[in-house]
Specification:
Distance between the termini: 17 Å
Number of strands: 0
CATH class: Mainly Alpha
Number of helices: 3
Number of domains: 1
Radius of gyration: 11 Å
Helix content: 55-70%
């Protein structure tokens, strides 16, 4: 069973990753804290989904 992540979350996560490539790592918690520190108008759910998606991207699970 796949992980369902909305396209808008993927798009925003990829934008953040392109803007701050050296700030993200494979660790979900560190990614979540960094996204929170940006103080962008994201909900808790959006932050968690983006942090998880970025973690999976960097881990090589998704293309």
């Amino acid at each position: 069973m796949g992980k369902a992540v909305p396209k808008i979350i993927k798009h925003r996560a990829k934008e953040l990753l392109a803007t701050y490539p050296d700030k993200f790592c494979k660790d979900f918690e560190k990614n979540k804290q960094f996204i929170r520190s940006l103080e962008l108008p994201f909900t808790k759910l959006e932050i968690n989904l983006m942090a998880g998606y970025i973690s999976r991207l960097l881990d090589g699970e998704e293309s």
